[in-house]
């Protein structure tokens, strides 16, 4: 039983970390590989400072790692499969009842599973 408690707590912490729309979008943006803060900010139409604030806890929990190249920091997912896991979670959403059109969830699925980077808005 203690193992289940420990694992449940760890999973709850991971889910809390992911429980922000910007962080989910960032993870999906990084699924194509390494990017710097400016590129992530441009793709998500968010300020760079906000991106940096969200990257800090993702890095602290080892979901992303960074490397420096001069003054630039490049970030990548430590376990890229987490992006696929998030896409699979779309199955559990009851978005159709909260959105005017049911096409929204399908559009997000297309964006997040595309082979080439596209805007994730």
UniProtKB/TrEMBL annotation:
<dbReference type="InterPro" id="IPR011991">
    <property type="entry name" value="ArsR-like_HTH"/>
</dbReference>
<feature type="domain" description="HTH arsR-type">
    <location>
        <begin position="3"/>
        <end position="97"/>
    </location>
</feature>
<dbReference type="GO" id="GO:0003700">
    <property type="term" value="F:DNA-binding transcription factor activity"/>
</dbReference>
<keyword id="KW-0238">DNA-binding</keyword>
<dbReference type="GO" id="GO:0003677">
    <property type="term" value="F:DNA binding"/>
</dbReference>
<keyword id="KW-0804">Transcription</keyword>
<dbReference type="InterPro" id="IPR051081">
    <property type="entry name" value="HTH_MetalResp_TranReg"/>
</dbReference>
<keyword id="KW-0805">Transcription regulation</keyword>
<dbReference type="Pfam" id="PF01022">
    <property type="entry name" value="HTH_5"/>
</dbReference>
<dbReference type="InterPro" id="IPR001845">
    <property type="entry name" value="HTH_ArsR_DNA-bd_dom"/>
</dbReference>
<dbReference type="InterPro" id="IPR036390">
    <property type="entry name" value="WH_DNA-bd_sf"/>
</dbReference>
<protein>
    <submittedName>
        <fullName>Helix-turn-helix domain-containing protein</fullName>
    </submittedName>
</protein>
<dbReference type="InterPro" id="IPR036388">
    <property type="entry name" value="WH-like_DNA-bd_sf"/>
</dbReference>
């Amino acid at each position: 039983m203690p193992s289940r408690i420990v694992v449940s707590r760890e999973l709850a912490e991971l889910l809390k970390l992911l429980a922000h729309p910007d962080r989910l979008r960032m993870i999906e943006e990084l699924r194509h590989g390494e990017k710097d803060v400016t590129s992530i900010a441009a793709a998500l139409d968010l300020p760079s400072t906000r991106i940096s604030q969200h990257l800090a806890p993702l890095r602290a929990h080892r979901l992303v790692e960074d490397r420096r190249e001069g003054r630039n920091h490049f970030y990548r997912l430590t376990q890229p499969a987490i992006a696929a896991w998030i896409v699979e979670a779309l199955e559990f959403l009851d978005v159709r009842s909260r959105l005017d059109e049911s096409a929204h969830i399908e559009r997000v699925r297309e964006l997040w599973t595309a082979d080439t980077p596209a805007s994730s808005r």
